[in-house]
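Support reply, case 0932

Customer input (verbatim):
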Amino acid sequence: MKNSLFIKVIFFVSIIISLAGCKIENLNTKEANYAMPNKYALANDSTNTQALYWRNYFTDTNLVALIDEALKNNQDLNIMLREIEISKNEILSRKGEYLPFGFLGAGLGVEKSSKYTWDGVSEEDAKTRPDPLPRYIGNQSVMANFTWEIDIWNKLHNAKDAAVKRLLATVDGKNFLITNLIAEIANSYYELVVLDNELQIVEQNITIQKESLEMVKVQKDAAKVNQLAINRFMAQLLNTENLRFEILQRTTEVENKINFLVARYPQPIKRNSNNINGIELMNITAGIPAQLLSNRPDIRQAENTLQAVKLDIAVARANFYPNLTLSAGVGLNAFNPAYLINPQSVAINMLGNMMGPLINKRAIKATYYNANERQIQAVYAYEQTVLNAFLEVTNQLAANKNYKESFTTKKNQVDILSNSIDISNSLFKSARADYTEVLLTQREALEAKMDLMEIKQKQLSAQVNIFKALGGGWK
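Our regenerated output:
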């Protein structure tokens, strides 16, 4: 009768707890916008861009060696690899939470109850037994205890699935880091090649300006020019020589940037700086924008993060419902060690426990509300990542087109000005041109050649960055 009443009370309380948990406010979540334009403004092809392997794209053996070394030694990449292992361990931890836990323990204790307590009275009565109990009653036990939380609401499984999504997001983050690392090394390498060519241009112009200075000195000796002409030619020569030191400093900084990326102390970077105009990277097609969703690791990372926070909402929601925990124990228990190893000392216990929040659920509500807010944040982050990827491809397609045409135009200007240097020198020698025309022509030719190298660097950078923007390099 008493057991039946007890079971009814437990059942009634469980129903109340369940009903209390069911009254959960449904919050508005945000759905991600997966729609993208059908094509890029400067590309009309639908070629699949999935197989963008960096070894096929970059053919310079020195650059390939640097990338190989960076993929092995780069500290940021190795830190990210450790982060992946941490995420894997988090999955193991989550899996373990919905499996039974078992513990083995042993205990030894003595107890003397007061005479004026029920336990004390029992001890006094026990002395009159034929086999009286010991004066000090102890408690010795060797027990195996088990607990198991029954995942009624899929709370624990959802937490594990969220951990899996975060692992995938971490892997995608590593892949995105690889893409950026390869692009950064390639851009720095080509910057070094451009700097070498700029240095060569400056040294050639130093030679030309020294020859012009000697020519002006001869003209001064012939009383055709004055000291002002010599001073201006000398000032221009010193300015060009100063430019040489600036290039050397930039070269040192870029070399050490590459050394940092490959995780080594300063040393010269092997490179092939000859025939810079002959550098040709593999021609790739942009494909269609929808392919970015699978090719760009940062988009995949944002999508997996979005899926993880959706599961976090389900986990937070489950906290409102009662949880059921089963516990059991089996072992040996006796008041005297002498009776411990005895079949009659076998002790077994089993318990089912259902608990759920009833009042003062503010902390649970706050966790649930925050989970919803993080889901909305993740949607915005995903949409921002997709938009940024689309704009990056659009920008680099335009850069490829514009810098290619700009290089052709600037090269024609360089050819004209280079030819003008010889013409101005000839005219000056025959007194048909002023020395300022020689100075101006040399200055304009040098500036045009340096501009040409900068455009070439931007052109190479655009080719590297379109490879990066399309999600190449990480496979």
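We compared this against your earlier run and they match. Two observations from our side: The first strand starts at residue 101 and ends at 111. The mean pLDDT is 86. Please reopen the case if you see a mismatch on your end.
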